[in-house]
Amino acid sequence: MPQPKKLFEPWAPPVATAAEVAALKALAAGTASPEQQRRSLDFIIQRVAGTYEEVYCPGEGGNRDTAYALGKRRVGTYIVSLLNADIRKFKTDQSPTEQS
Protein backbone atom coordinates (compact mmCIF):
# COMPACT_ATOMS: atom_id res chain seq x y z
CA MET A 1 0.00 0.00 0.00
CA PRO A 2 1.48 3.41 -0.92
CA GLN A 3 2.39 5.80 1.87
CA PRO A 4 0.32 9.00 2.05
CA LYS A 5 2.16 12.17 1.16
CA LYS A 6 3.38 14.21 4.12
CA LEU A 7 1.36 17.32 4.82
CA PHE A 8 4.42 19.27 5.95
CA GLU A 9 8.09 18.88 5.08
CA PRO A 10 10.01 21.27 7.36
CA TRP A 11 13.26 20.95 5.41
CA ALA A 12 11.64 22.05 2.14
CA PRO A 13 12.42 25.72 1.46
CA PRO A 14 9.56 28.01 0.48
CA VAL A 15 9.35 29.02 -3.15
CA ALA A 16 10.49 32.64 -3.29
CA THR A 17 9.00 35.21 -5.63
CA ALA A 18 11.16 37.50 -7.75
CA ALA A 19 10.16 40.41 -5.51
CA GLU A 20 11.28 38.52 -2.40
CA VAL A 21 14.65 37.64 -3.94
CA ALA A 22 15.15 41.23 -5.09
CA ALA A 23 14.25 42.50 -1.62
CA LEU A 24 16.71 40.13 0.07
CA LYS A 25 19.47 41.09 -2.37
CA ALA A 26 18.83 44.79 -1.76
CA LEU A 27 18.79 44.21 2.01
CA ALA A 28 22.15 42.42 1.84
CA ALA A 29 23.59 45.23 -0.31
CA GLY A 30 22.32 47.89 2.09
CA THR A 31 20.17 49.51 -0.57
CA ALA A 32 16.71 48.15 0.31
CA SER A 33 13.77 50.51 0.31
CA PRO A 34 11.51 50.50 3.38
CA GLU A 35 9.08 48.21 1.52
CA GLN A 36 11.91 45.82 0.57
CA GLN A 37 13.10 45.75 4.18
CA ARG A 38 9.60 44.82 5.37
CA ARG A 39 9.22 42.24 2.59
CA SER A 40 12.57 40.64 3.50
CA LEU A 41 11.75 40.36 7.19
CA ASP A 42 8.28 39.04 6.42
CA PHE A 43 9.75 36.40 4.11
CA ILE A 44 12.33 35.32 6.70
CA ILE A 45 10.05 35.37 9.74
CA GLN A 46 6.91 33.91 8.23
CA ARG A 47 7.90 31.81 5.26
CA VAL A 48 11.46 30.63 5.90
CA ALA A 49 11.31 30.21 9.68
CA GLY A 50 7.61 29.34 9.84
CA THR A 51 7.35 31.35 13.05
CA TYR A 52 3.56 31.31 13.25
CA GLU A 53 2.98 27.81 11.84
CA GLU A 54 2.02 24.67 13.72
CA VAL A 55 5.18 22.56 13.86
CA TYR A 56 3.89 19.17 15.03
CA CYS A 57 4.62 16.50 12.45
CA PRO A 58 2.75 13.23 13.06
CA GLY A 59 3.61 9.83 11.71
CA GLU A 60 6.81 7.96 10.96
CA GLY A 61 9.76 10.30 11.40
CA GLY A 62 7.50 12.84 13.04
CA ASN A 63 9.76 13.44 16.04
CA ARG A 64 12.70 14.30 13.83
CA ASP A 65 10.59 16.49 11.53
CA THR A 66 9.04 18.28 14.51
CA ALA A 67 12.48 18.94 16.01
CA TYR A 68 13.69 20.34 12.70
CA ALA A 69 10.64 22.59 12.39
CA LEU A 70 11.07 23.81 15.97
CA GLY A 71 14.68 24.76 15.23
CA LYS A 72 13.59 26.86 12.26
CA ARG A 73 10.77 28.40 14.27
CA ARG A 74 13.19 29.38 17.05
CA VAL A 75 15.11 31.58 14.62
CA GLY A 76 11.90 33.40 13.75
CA THR A 77 10.76 33.83 17.35
CA TYR A 78 14.16 35.20 18.32
CA ILE A 79 14.09 37.77 15.51
CA VAL A 80 10.55 38.79 16.50
CA SER A 81 11.60 39.10 20.16
CA LEU A 82 14.45 41.44 19.16
CA LEU A 83 12.12 43.52 16.98
CA ASN A 84 9.81 43.93 19.99
CA ALA A 85 12.57 44.46 22.56
CA ASP A 86 13.31 47.65 24.49
CA ILE A 87 16.64 48.66 22.97
CA ARG A 88 17.60 50.49 26.16
CA LYS A 89 18.06 47.13 27.87
CA PHE A 90 20.93 46.15 25.57
CA LYS A 91 24.59 46.93 26.09
CA THR A 92 26.30 48.98 23.42
CA ASP A 93 29.66 48.76 21.66
CA GLN A 94 30.37 45.14 22.56
CA SER A 95 30.87 42.09 20.42
CA PRO A 96 28.30 39.29 20.88
CA THR A 97 30.82 37.25 22.93
CA GLU A 98 31.27 40.14 25.37
CA GLN A 99 27.55 40.55 26.10
CA SER A 100 26.10 38.59 28.96
Quick recap of the structure?
With about 100 residues, this protein is mostly helical. About 50% of the residues lie in helices and about 0% in strands.
Question: What does the model show?
Answer:
Helix content is 49%, strand content 0%. The mean pLDDT is 89. The protein has a domain at 18-83. It has helices spanning 18-29, 34-48, 62-83. It is flat, with a radius of gyration of 17 Å. The protein is built from three helices and no strands. The chain has 100 residues and is an all-alpha fold.
The shape is flat
The major sheet is characterized as: none
Helix/strand/pairing category: mainly alpha
Low-confidence stretches: none
Order of helices and strands: HHH
Task: Report the sheet-strand fraction.
Answer: under 5%
Distance between the termini: 55 Å
Tell me roughly what share of residues is in helical segments.
Answer: 40-55%
The average pLDDT score comes to 89
What is the overall number of helices? 3
Radius of gyration: 17 Å
The total count of strands amounts to 0
Write the topology of this structure.
Layout (H helix, E strand, L loop, with lengths): L17 H12 L4 H15 L13 H22 L17
Helix pairs in contact: 1-2, 2-3
Primary descriptors:
100 residues, 0% strand
